[in-house]
Design a protein that fits this description.
alpha+beta; Fructose-1,6-Bisphosphatase, Chain A, domain 1; 324 residues; 9 helices; 6-stranded mixed beta sheet; globular; 28% strand; 8-stranded mixed beta sheet
Length: 324
């Protein structure tokens, strides 16, 4: 990553919101239909189409797959007209394919953009993560601390008992020991089936009831979550989990030199970062797509780290055929 200071055009933030809106509307046609593949493909196709009309020289650094997995938005794919600034693109065209297929909460389309060379090129592997919202002393929680130590530190900073703290954790067998440790420390656990980007961002909003995110999820999703926290405020650490040689080889090819490195938020997403997301189903962060009155309503959040601006866009689109 580089230390470039040139800012992205502020209008690009709103244009990124249009990209996630289009992907969300198209994937919403598959909500509750039990077809994860079609829902994801609809989002991919829509996102690629909208990205390619933007005046940027964009490169996908966090994407849907490798080059030979087309028509996914693959890592290394060039997007945009090529006429504008060099931009790193991290995306999850449909965060929560299972959530969409089953009409469950918190599915959304997600995109982050940053100056070229400033987003961590994370391989498609797991990442151990910990995150909290803003307003706390730096370094309050740490991946290398025990769950009890992190919960006690957070409770002390909030001036409450540990029993008042709620941790969000993916409901996976690998987290059995973590869940047990959190509960034994006296805290509550909210389990989610998918969508750990939403889980991380939930720590920034007291209305969600989530105070801390803990556990192992996808590395690409970790970078996207870090990009969001860079804009909205918070703390996050992540460590790649490369258990097999193939993962280490791929990570090394992307510039990772220390496989045990503990990345902080600013190392995963530095420079001027834009984050955009549109809800597909209703969730903590966003309302989903609602088809009504001959059109659709969308709920989008657009954030920018350089200015600390957070925009929430509630829109009605009557010409849905232009999206699909």
């Amino acid at each position: 990553m580089s230390g470039k200071t040139t800012k992205l055009n502020r209008m690009l933030a709103l244009e990124m919101g249009r990209v996630t809106e289009r992907a969300a509307v198209c994937s919403s046609l598959w909500v509750g239909r039990g077809d994860e593949k079609s829902a994801d493909q609809a989002a991919v196709d829509a996102m690629r189409k909208e990205l390619n009309v933007l005046d940027i020289d964009g490169t996908v650094v966090i994407g849907e797959g490798e080059r030979d997995e087309a028509p996914m938005l693959y890592i290394g794919e060039k997007v945009g007209t090529g006429k504008g600034p060099k931009v790193d693109i991290a995306l999850d065209p449909l965060e929560g394919t299972t959530l969409t297929a089953k009409a469950m909460p918190n599915a959304m389309t997600v995109l982050a953009a940053a100056q070229g060379g400033t987003l961590l090129n994370a391989p498609d592997c797991y990442m151990d993560k910990i995150a909290i919202g803003g307003g706390y002393p730096a370094g309050l929680v740490d991946l290398d601390a025990t769950p009890a130590e992190n919960l006690e530190a957070l409770a002390k900073a909030r001036k409450v008992g540990v029993a008042q703290i709620t941790a969000c954790i993916l409901d996976r067998p690998r987290h059995a020991d973590l869940i047990r440790a959190v509960r034994e420390a006296g805290a509550r656990v909210t389990l989610i089936t998918d969508g750990d980007i939403a889980g991380v961002i939930a720590t920034t909003d007291h209305e969600t009831g989530i105070d801390i995110y803990m556990g192992v999820g996808g590395a690409p999703e970790g970078v996207l979550a870090a990009a969001a926290l860079r804009c909205i405020g918070g703390q996050m650490q992540g460590r790649l989990i490369t258990n097999v040689e193939e993962q280490k080889t791929r990570a090394a090819s992307m510039g990772v030199k220390d496989f045990n490195k503990k990345f902080d938020m600013s190392e995963m997403a530095s420079g001027d970062v834009i984050f955009a997301a549109t809800g597909v189903t209703d969730g903590w962060l966003l309302d989903g797509i609602h088809h009504e009155r001959g059109g659709v309503t969308t709920n989008t959040i657009v954030m920018r780290s350089a200015t600390g601006t957070v925009r929430r866009l509630n829109s009605f689109h009557s010409a849905i055929e232009k999206f699909t």
